[in-house]
Every structure is written in structure tokens, then in C-alpha cells.
TrEMBL record:
Residues 49-84, 143-178 form the EF-hand domain. It holds the Pfam family Ferric_reduct. The chain crosses the membrane at residues 217-237, 273-291, 353-372. GO terms for biological process: defense response; superoxide anion generation. This is NADPH oxidase 5. It is found in: Membrane. One of its GO terms (cellular component) is NADPH oxidase complex. Residues 397-535 form the FAD-binding FR-type domain. Gene3D superfamilies: EF-hand, Nucleotide-binding domain of ferredoxin-NADP reductase (FNR) module, Translation factors. It comes from the Eukaryota. Keywords: Calcium, FAD, Flavoprotein, Membrane, Metal-binding, NADP, Oxidoreductase, Transmembrane, Transmembrane helix.
Amino acid sequence: LLGAAAGSHTMSTAEDTEWLQWVTKQFGSIAGDNKEINLEEFKTALQVKESFFAERFFALFDADGSGTISLEELLKSLSLLMHGNEMDKLRFLFQVYDHCSVGITVGLRCWRHVPSGSIDPDELRVVLGWCLRESAIALPEERLADLTLALFEAADKDRSGSITFEELKEELEGFPEVMENLTISAASWLKPPLPPARSRRPRHLTRTYWHNHRGKLACLGGYAGLNLLLFALGALWHAGQSRCGTGLCLTWLRATPIAKVLPLDQHVVFHQLVGYVVLVLAAIHTGAHVANFSRLARQDGCHGLAEYLLRAQPGVGGLGGTASQTGLALQALLATMLAFSSPCVRQSGHFEVFYWTHLSYIFIWTLLILHGPHFWKWFAVPGCLFVMEKVLGLAWRRAGGLRIVEVNLLPSKVTHLVIERPQFFRYKPGDYVYLNIPAIASYEWHPFTISSAPEQQETLWLHIRSLGQWTNKLYEYFQQPESPGPEQKPLSRSLREKRCRRWAQVGVSAGLGETHRLCSIKCYIDGPYGTPTRRIFTSEHAVLIGAGIGITPFASILQSIMYRRRKQSCPSCHYSWCEDLRDEEMTLQKVDFIWINRDQKHFEWFISLLTKLEMEQAEQEPGGRFLEMHMYMTSALSKNDMKAIGLQMALDLLATKEQRDSITGLRTRTQPGRPDWIKVFGKVAEEKRGKVQVFFCGSPALAKVIRVHCERFGFRFFKENF
């Protein structure tokens, strides 16, 4: 209800009427015999919790100053907010800010609205302070004073020490978006958000969907066709019988032309699909045999169904006639694997349950060899390749242990690990590794995206958010005053010097809520493994969208891009130039980076890196727009919210004055609320900087939203796992 603008800039009359009927019903259910409501009942009726703005609206709605609102007063005020002209709404906004109020007692507060006709600095400061509070923005009092001063100096045209209505109107005219939002913002503060309109035509039947997913659909068609062919051949063979029946390679393939045909980036989706198909076919297969045994039991009369299922029967099939028993065991293992693979298990802090039950594939293969006399023919080649890959991987993992040389505990329980880099370790931006830390769990390996650039020679960075048992244990382990760990072989000289420089800088960032520690903890890594983000360098216009910790793969990519475009200088003549290492792998003409965070503290994870990227681009290309950053803070009141108008104006004015954002400290202004994807992608399309490819890392729900908009604009969409 708070600050959520309805889906468009204009509300239909039918929607307004429906909402007013809802307000009337709420009022009637709460009002007493006198048919009036007080402040607390007003908050309950409109489901409003915020104190300051609820009291301001209540005071303005209470036209007779009685301390209560009648239904007539409420509907009259709401009608003005929804159907009044621009001046009516602007005057209402002015009265919200002009909050000199004395006189009548409402509960324990005194709120009889006596407008002074002007806004003084103290009034403005109070309102902006509440705006910051409701936006979950924590700024020191000095910054609040700076915001107040910036807005007050801009609006107080005659330097009289107060802002009149005409001065506020003149200042707002310099912000066209704010004036446009006045047509909806006053009502949208109270009006509940409308559900998004859905297209009548299913997305999967659109021409755009089939074009963007042609590789995936071709693979699915081929897989389904092959299964149908094998089923038909099996049915023909059984027709004459008396019984009834029914990693690294991917990384390498991504660098070949096959990647343009096969949807290698969706291997996890296909893995899940194949698992579901196997389970369904196994259930059909088992059901057919149970039905057949039931028929035989009725015909025989000497053996019951349980005997057919639970005792070995010569001639039934399998090793020693154990087809029934091994089949039931297989069905139970498959069902267990499916149950513990569900998102509710994997994403609720029980990843270990998923991991260990998935290892039952070893027993499944063993039982399949016992169950089917011809299974070994299908299993021999892929089984040998699988075993060879596992043996080589294990040998590589345990060949030489690495060390975690530095740990930074960041806000929101994010652990930043700095690991010494193996001498011959080669990877691409956006790749991931499997990490094992014996001090946390001896036999558990977990995948994490590398957040450092390949050009960073001596260390690897991993940013790990605490979401499950293992990641929480990792964070808590390094929270201890001193994590025990024997010192290993000495570090290299360059790494020791880099550690010393880094440690010397700890005091500089102590205010960011970080905890730094130098250490020497043994660990192992397996990888690297490729991801869809490898395509970024062969894109023309790349749009990188990270939600929360989903920035991790893009941190590596952005660093690598700037390394390749780094300016070089001649030591003798001091002539400088941008080397721009654009080889055959890099065809980028433009990069738009979008980072969406819930609140202010989440930006602290990578703010130093983004600041460095901004500075490098400013040095290499003054005024250049090769890399554009867009920051969004979803907890902040959006510009469509009446309560946020003054705050957003103040933030814009101060950012223009200081050339930096008050929330992050970047030159890029942090936008409140969620991105308007139609406007964002519309702007990208207008730039015409080449073929657009969108890369996303974040929640599946947001991925679906962005995918739909990409299909609308004809952009290719790739989802990265973090």
C-alpha cells in the first residue's frame, strides 16, 4: 500500500470506484457508533504503519479539527487526491511539508493543523529525516543537514529563510518526472498496487519465444524423438515375448562452434528434465510389471503378488531372477533422490541432504547392472569416461593444497575469501570453482563464482553469502577471535608485500562494517568450470544485471574488461594511450551494468571495486560511456511515491553539486525502487550499439520477469547461477 504506484500513470475510473468502495467498507467495519475514526483507526483502515506521514494525512483530512474523521471527510479528501488537478495535488504536498501544528490532542500527540503558509529549514529537515527512515537509508546527521541545505537553497528563491508555495512550484518545474508523478503519487500512497496485467496469449506460443529458444527446443525435440524410437523398438521386441514391459567437457564445448547450436548453458535444466523423464518412465515400467505380476498371480493361484515382487523368480530377469527386487529398490532410490532435490530442500539450508542423497547414483548404477542383462552395453563407454573424469578430478584436487591468505567479513553475512592462486591455474571471467575447506567439512565441495579477474595473477577472490549450513559455518568460523590453523610454507615475496599493503588499508574501510583477517587456512579447489557469461566478450552490447550477491560473476567480468582497456604510458615521453586489447574474443562496444539491492548496506560488498572502475573509465575516456552503471535500491521510496518527492529532489541536487551519490559514494546516482524494465530496455534498444545480449544473476522470480521483457525487445537472455 505504501508508495506502490499502480501499473500505469493513469488509473481507470472503474479501478478508482472499486478502491473507494473498499475504503468505505473498511471504514464501516472500524468506525464506532458515531461513524468517525481516530488516528489509530485511520492507520488500521488503510493498513498504514508509518507514524509521521499517517499523522500528516490524518491532520489534513480532519477538516474541522475535531480529532476524528468522518466518512464524508475521508472520501472528499481521497477524491481530491485522485481526481484533482495538478495544482490541488501540489498544494496538498506543500501542506504535508508545512507541518506547524498545535492545538488539539489526538491520543498522546498534539496535531491541530495550522498552516503557516511557508516551509522553514527545521520543517524540511524533519520531513527528509522521515523519508530517509522509511527508505531504510542510514545517513549521518551531517548528510541530512547537507540534503536539507541543498533543497532549501534551491527552493528559497528570494532568500527569505522560508519556502513559499510559489517557490516550491517553481523548483518542482525543474524536475519534469516529479511533476508528472504528481498526477498519480498522492493517491498511490494510499492505493494498493494492482496485479500486473497478463497477456492472454501464452508466452510459450509466441514467435519470439520459439526464436530465442530454438536451440533448447531442438534439443528437447531430439531427446523426445530418441526416447520414442527406443520405446518403439523395445515394444516391437517385447511383442514377440510372453512378458509385458515398457563439467569440464561443457567448459571446452563452450569454446567450440557447437555452443552456437546446442543450449550448453542450460545443462542443469536438461539434467533436471532427464531426471524427471527417467523417474516417470521408471514408474510406468514398474507399474506395468506390477500389473503383469498381478495377472499372473490370479492365473496361477499358487503364488501371491507379494511373492512375485519380493522373492527371486527364475526366468523373470535380472541376475538370479532378482529383477523385481532390484526394480523396487531402484524405484525407491529414484523417489528419494527426487524428494531431496526439490528447491525447498536445497534452498532452505539443507544442501548437505541434497548432496549426499544425490550420491546414491552409485547404487543406482550397480542395481541397474544387476537388474538389466543388457544395461552394461549402454553403460560401458559413458561409465568409463565418468570414472576417468572423477579420478583425474580427485587427483587434481588433492595434488596440492592451497591456502586462504585473507578473509573479509562483509555486511549481510558475506564472506570474502582471498586464496593463493595455483601457478598454472587458467580461467575466464565468470567461471566458477568447487571449494573444499577441511576445517569446515572434510568431504563437502561447494560451487562458487570467482569474483576476481583472470588478470589478477597471485590470488583468487570468492564472495560467499551465508545461506545454508556450510556457508553459515564458514562465516562463524572466521568470526572467532582467532581461527586455529597451522602455518604452512612461506608465502611468496610479492604476495607477502601485497598482504601488507592490504592490511595497512584496513583502517581506511573500518567504517564499512567489515572485519579483516590475515590467515593461512588450508583449502582445495576443483575447476574452473565455464558459465554462460563467457559469451559476454563476444557480444556487441552486453547488459549485465545482478541482484544482491548476484553481482559476483560480473565483478570478475567488469575488472577484466577494464584491464583490457587499461591506459598505458611511455616512460620516456610520457605519451599515454588506451591499449584496448580487443582480440578475436572481445567485440564489446557497450556495457550496461545494473545492480539491484534491497537496502543500503548491501552496496558495501563491491563499492570499492565499482569506485575504482569509475575512476579508471574517467581517466581513460573522460566523458566516455563504454561502461554505464545503474544502481537500484528497492527498499527506498520510489519517485512515484508522494512521500519521496522531496527526498529524491534533495538527493539529485546534492549529487549534482558534489558529483557523487549520497547513498553509495559513487558518481552514479542510486535510483529508488525497482527498475522499470520497459524504460530500461527501451533506452538500450534506442542506442543501437549492436546486437544486445542480457546476462542475469539473481533470484529465479526476477529472472522470469526479465526474460519476458527480453523476449519482447528481441534480446537474447542468459541466466547465471551464483
